[in-house]
Amino acid sequence: MSTLGIAVIGTGKMGADHVRRIGRTVGGARVVAVADPDGDRVKEVAGTLDGATAHTDPAAAIAAPGVEAVLIASPGPAHEEAILHALERELPVLCEKPLTPDPAGALRVMEAEQRLGRRLVQVGFMRRYDPEYERLKHLLDADGIGRPLFLHCRHRNASSPSFFTSDMLISDSVVHEVDAARWLLGQEIIAVTVLSPRPSAAAPEGLSDPRLVLLETSGGVVVDVEIFVNCGFGYQVQCEAVGEAGSARIGDGHAMVVQSAGHWGGAIDQDFTVRFADAYDRQLRSWVAAAGRGRVAGPDAWDGYAAAAVSEAGIAAARSGVRTAVELAERPPLYG
Ligand SMILES: NC(=O)c1ccc[n+]([C@@H]2O[C@H](COP(=O)([O-])OP(=O)(O)OC[C@H]3O[C@@H](n4cnc5c(N)ncnc54)[C@H](O)[C@@H]3O)[C@@H](O)[C@H]2O)c1
Ligand SMILES: O[C@H]1[C@H](O)[C@@H](O)[C@H](O)[C@@H](O)[C@H]1O
């Protein structure tokens, strides 16, 4: 079997994690080039690889010999440029979420794909590959709890990175719930309302954390998302679907409950790299298999665009305090 040569763009926390996964848990692929404007960082990551070239310019990594597919893990605002370089070379892409922070950038990515006449971009909405989310999706698809009415979601991070902004609570964090809700329900999000309580004392100065985000769907379902990125105690992603004939809940993380010395309890994951380890592996395996055939199989640029349009409405709603409608372009036939 031939191995797929991958360029990894951005070698920070997520990029380095993907590089490790490709080496250890994903067969049929190898990293042949890495890029990061931080020269020391990119050399350090390249040093863990056998024969990969290190670049400070993403375009040079994408054009490096042996590159057949591109994995983008740079910050959101840098995604569009790297995707367009990859599409110029007709290379399959796995781009970390968000596809782009704004819908205008996502539309340009879709235009480039439409010029090529095929989909080459997959967005890293890895929750679609999480076994618990998959089970919930199967239940809803099988009408297991009747017609859905609510999704109650909690998304908590132990702490936020230094570069995190109030807008990013929506465009970088809640974007996962936006995609999960669209996928679980098979409906678009049509309006967003954001409530911002008094910030937690643990939130960095100026960060509006936590927030409550209300999403309304085209099918009349209401999705509430508590986003709290400095909760202090760990990483939690929970979702309860309530339907006309029952409810189903995932993300309680009760893999093992210990009872000892007059107490009961278990551990809370501290990080997404632990909670979603399986999902990242399965996402990568699926992308590598499809990319080897020159295709993509998972969430596509339309999904990235729709999520960016909801983020834009959510950011406006948070600033105005007013329910804000989502403006969505017509879905091009390529994404039908
Ligand atoms: N799917 C998930 O659960 C998940 C988890 C964490 C991060 N992410 C996403 O992964 C991406 C990276 O996040 P991170 O946490 O690794 O951030 P990070 O800050 O740890 O790493 C980003 C890296 O990109 C580099 N970089 C900056 N500009 C660049 C450019 N123009 N081209 C290439 N590299 C550039 C930085 O020097 C840094 O090394 C973001 O899109 C983020 O939203 C996804
Ligand atoms: O970039 C990260 C990542 O997407 C995590 O999955 C999410 O929980 C964080 O809130 C976000 O900042």
Automatic annotation (TrEMBL):
GO terms (molecular function) for this protein are: inositol 2-dehydrogenase (NAD+) activity
The organism encoding this protein is: Streptomyces avidinii
Q: Which family does it belong to?
A: Belongs to the Gfo/Idh/MocA family.
Can you name this protein? Inositol 2-dehydrogenase
Q: Where is the Gfo/Idh/MocA-like oxidoreductase N-terminal domain?
A: 5-125
Record has Aminoacyl-tRNA synthetase as a keyword? no
- What UniProt keywords apply to this chain's record, in alphabetical order? NAD, Oxidoreductase
EC no. given is: 1.1.1.18
Q: Which reaction does it catalyse?
A: myo-inositol + NAD(+) = scyllo-inosose + NADH + H(+)
Q: Which residues form a coiled coil?
A: none
Q: Which residues form the Gfo/Idh/MocA-like oxidoreductase C-terminal domain?
A: 137-322
Pfam families per UniProt: GFO_IDH_MocA (PF01408), GFO_IDH_MocA_C (PF02894)
Question: Assembly and interactions?
Answer: Homotetramer.
What does this protein do, in the record's words? Involved in the oxidation of myo-inositol (MI) to 2-keto-myo-inositol (2KMI or 2-inosose).
